Fold:
Amino acid sequence: ADIRINAEDIRRRKGGVPIVCLTAYTYPVARLLDPHVDLLLVGDSVAMVLHGHATTLGASLEMMIAHGQAVMRGSAKACVVVDMPAGSYEASPAQAVTAARRIVEETGCQAVKLEGGVDIAAQIAAIVAAGIPVMGHIGLQPQSVEKDGGYKIKGRTQENIALLFRDAEAVEKAGAFSVVIEGTMEAVAAKLTHYISIPTIGIGASVDCDGQILVIDDMVGLTVDRVPKFVKEYADLRSAVADAAARYAAEVRSRAFPSPDHVFTTEPGKDET
Ligand code: KIV
Ligand code: NA
Structure:
């Protein structure tokens, strides 16, 4: 049971071989990814990717816990981190600790992640003090997309760069074991990585980050909506699924499926599925 990579193992990898992270939301995908990754994030992107909501604000605590349980059942080795959904932690450190405890107790995950820097440092510190490891998330914060008026790349102005450094420092000082840097100018993400002593996990950030993460559906080419510039598609599952559906449809219509191989007849000893 202790073969799982934990938050402290991730923390120790600062400056070493890049930390391989992907999101996962389901049992079968967790099974497929677990041998290859160090960390699986049950991102609140699940609300958009699997449930079709317009933003991550569609995620609920119940949704995060259900997918967290599925990913834990499907993985044995990866450090599993579950996102705290919008509305579960911003109000107070006490609210954040209550929600984080529920996530960890009901899923068995290794850590939780929340978005923000200086503004939620007290929440990070309180969750860490309760014995739950926390991953930070700075730069572009999808839970703030409505407030920000869109998905805007961070670190373009001197003023914003100063804010990013303050956020990175606040997250580190609050006791986070690592921090996601999303949608941030490359040179700034690289400098932030050298500025703090916990691993940075980049997405639309820099190759100099201590690790990288992508949304699994984006990475395998299954995303049907527009994918951001920072995504690299390593497979084309859209085409694979559409092609399979088209061939199945043709075979059903022509009665080529099911063939004798896929039906039950009176042959002896063939009564199992
Ligand atoms: O929800 C998510 O998928 C994330 C990653 C993109 C870091 O937060
Ligand atoms: Na997220």
